[in-house]
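wait is this the right file?? whatever heres the structure
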């Protein structure tokens, strides 16, 4: 069974920084892409950033220039460096992975449990 575990959330002041990590654990899988989504109260879940195993990235316009997604394929880990945080960044951040698994011909999509990021004075 594949599990995604996020860490690094917390409470920070506006302008502060956080670094989120997500580790995919288990066996019999390889990564096609991983990314971060977030969901604020009363809002739909939205893509924040994504990265393919080859290193191509995609960012929401609202975080470009402030957030950086990176990965360590050997460690099955994706990171989200968040700088210049704003109150509107407050949300639960979810790790997502599109994985090729040994027990299925088709890729599978997995979600972590989420980590709370709160930006407040």
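ok assuming it is, sequence goes like this
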């Amino acid at each position: 069974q594949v599990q995604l575990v996020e860490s690094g959330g917390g409470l920070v002041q506006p302008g502060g920084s956080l670094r989120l990590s997500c580790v995919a654990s288990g066996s019999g899988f390889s990564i096609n892409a991983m990314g971060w989504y977030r969901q604020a109260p009363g809002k739909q879940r939205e893509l924040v950033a994504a990265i393919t195993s080859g290193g191509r990235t995609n960012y929401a316009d609202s975080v470009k220039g402030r957030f950086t997604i990176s990965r360590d394929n050997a460690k099955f880990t994706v990171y989200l460096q968040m700088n210049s945080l704003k109150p509107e960044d407050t949300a639960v951040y979810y790790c997502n992975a599109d994985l090729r698994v040994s027990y299925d011909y088709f890729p599978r999509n997995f979600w972590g449990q989420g980590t709370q990021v709160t930006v407040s004075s």
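The radius of gyration is 14 Å. so i think its the right one actually
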